[in-house]
TrEMBL record:
Recorded superkingdom: Eukaryota
Entry protein name: Phosphatidylinositol transfer protein SFH5
Gene Ontology terms, MF aspect: metal ion binding; phosphatidylinositol transfer activity
Cell location: Cytoplasm; Endoplasmic reticulum membrane; Microsome membrane
Alphabetical list of PROSITE patterns matching this protein: CRAL_TRIO (PS50191)
Keywords recorded for this protein, A-Z: Cytoplasm, Endoplasmic reticulum, Heme, Iron, Lipid transport, Membrane, Metal-binding, Microsome, Transport
Residues covered by the CRAL-TRIO domain: 120-295
Main location: cytoplasm
Alphabetical list of CDD domains matching this protein: SEC14
Length: 295
């Protein structure tokens, strides 16, 4: 008869391994591979709310809870939401709300309703006067991590009354430009962008109630309906009298968003010191401290 020690040695030992939340179950890509266990838990809970979210967002559509919805080039199917790029998009809402699925759901519903009321598709198809908006926005290269770099050139049009005189038209242009910038993201390896807001040529006379209202409304739109799209944001060539912009923005922005924002002075050396650590000099225009051709 075996001894007690022999029995103990022969008996199998059952060790409870930590749960693997994504192995062999979830479609994944380079971005979902970076999700933490806490993020996967929150995502699965949020995902279970999708049908309800669509039904609440579009109460007049009896099929809203089961029909696919396309946003930012990705189809979100509430009946079959296990798609890696969909997970990346939903995670944006979760991260914007500290991984609280209920709060993320509220933000998601608000965004769906806003996109319908604003008519984002119509804004993207609208033709804006080239003499007013043609030089205000540029996409120029990528940073060292592959994020597209988006430039907003507020001094490119000398008559800012033409830009901001019709606040709603400016907002439609700005949303359309944002949507076209997002179209550069694949949600496989890259889901954020670098924004550079250049105020060169903006004078004291350009400060108007319309420009302040436009800045405030645009900030509210992007904070509320475009979560976690910024990798970094730089304000360059900022004259001291425009400090009001940042006091205006601050109450509307989360701490995490503010941490991504940097205010830079003027001159290619000063700007280059801020931008060259993240953008290769070959992809940065000379006027910003690089060696690429200026646009």
């Amino acid at each position: 008869m075996p001894s007690a020690s022999q029995v103990s040695a022969a008996a199998p030992t059952h060790v409870l391994a930590p749960p693997v939340l994504n192995e062999g179950v979830e479609p994944s890509n380079a971005l979902t591979a970076k999700f933490t266990p806490a993020e996967w838990i929150a995502l699965k809970k949020f995902r279970s709310m999708l049908s309800e979210s669509f039904a609440e967002a579009f109460p007049d559509d009896p099929d809203a809870g089961v029909m696919p919805y396309r946003m930012w080039g990705i189809t979100i199917d509430p009946k079959n939401p296990k798609e890696a790029r969909v997970s990346v998009i939903l995670m944006k809402f979760l991260r914007a709300r500290n991984l609280d699925p209920t709060e993320a759901k509220d933000m998601f519903i608000s965004t769906l309703r806003w996109r319908e009321s604003f008519n984002v598709d119509a804004a993207m198809n609208e033709r804006f006067p080239d003499e007013v908006f043609g030089n205000l926005g540029k996409v120029y290269g990528k940073d060292k991590q592959g994020h597209p770099v988006i430039y907003n050139l507020y001094g490119a049009t000398k008559d800012l009354n033409a830009v901001f005189g019709d606040v709603q038209r400016f907002l439609r242009w700005r949303v359309a430009f944002m949507e076209k910038s997002i179209a550069l993201l694949d949600f496989e390896t890259v889901d954020q962008m670098v924004q550079i807001h250049d105020y060169e040529g903006v004078g004291l006379s350009n400060r108007t109630d319309n420009s302040k209202n436009a800045a405030s409304e645009a900030s509210s739109i992007f904070q509320g309906h475009y979560p976690e799209f910024l990798s970094r944001k730089f304000f360059v060539n900022v004259p001291s009298f425009l400090a009001w912009i940042f006091w205006l923005f601050k109450p509307l922005l989360s701490t995490a968003t503010l941490a991504k924002m940097t205010v830079v002075g003027s001159g290619h050396r000063v700007i280059g010191a801020a931008l060259l650590p993240i953008i290769d000099e070959a992809k940065l225009p000379k006027k910003y401290g690089g060696v690429a051709v200026d646009f």
